[in-house]
Amino acid sequence: MLENLNYGLFNLINATPASPEWGIRLAIFIAKDLITIVPALVVILWLWGPRRQVAAQRQLVIKIAMALAISLLASWLLGHLFPHDRPFVDHVGYNFLHHAADDSFPSDHGTVIFTFALAFLFWHRVWSGILLMMVACTIAWSRVYLGVHWPMDMLGGMMVGLLGCLSAQILWNVCGNALYQRLSQLYRICFALPIRKGWIRD
């Protein structure tokens, strides 16, 4: 039944040769490039911001890193334990994005962007989490639309992201403050010159 739902949703979303070329190009940009928002925001949050908020921002970055590490490990394990072919490997629908014929479940892109969105929803602001969740859903849609993933691959990525965030919170409660202090010291040593110049925050 779940597999039938997966196929049904895929056929509803997947583009066809009759789909507009501009829609295909937009989806390719979303599928390949929009995820760069993750490293960009992480760097910005660590290096800049109001002085009174920098500590909270850096703690958020560390939590995100922990959650991503856990969720990507879980994604890798699930991919090996429950291998699932991509739609174009099964000759289902249409493919408009070149991709290796590796396992599709859960989606790595989905895992990363949903982990990131959930992290902001849990640890930053509701509005920022909702905004990033909209970005995550858009990326998920684009990769199904282009034929490189099944809808359930994206749902799996979201579930793994939730697991990553919950696990990261548990680890943070155990060793978060000590980890933050150590990484802050290492940062001040490695980036002493730009900190002195005032280019980035202490």
From TrEMBL:
Entry keywords, A to Z: Hydrolase, Membrane, Transmembrane, Transmembrane helix
Domain Phosphatidic acid phosphatase type 2/haloperoxidase, chain residue ranges per copy: 61-169
Lineage: Bacteria, Pseudomonadati, Pseudomonadota, Gammaproteobacteria, Enterobacterales
Coiled-coil positions: none
Catalytic activity: di-trans,octa-cis-undecaprenyl diphosphate + H2O = di-trans,octa-cis-undecaprenyl phosphate + phosphate + H(+)
Top enzyme category: hydrolase
Enzyme Commission number(s) from the entry: 3.6.1.27
GO CC terms, sorted: plasma membrane
Transmembrane segments: 26-48, 60-78, 105-123, 130-148, 154-175
UniProt protein name: undecaprenyl-diphosphate phosphatase
Single annotated GO MF: undecaprenyl-diphosphatase activity
Native organism: Silvania confinis
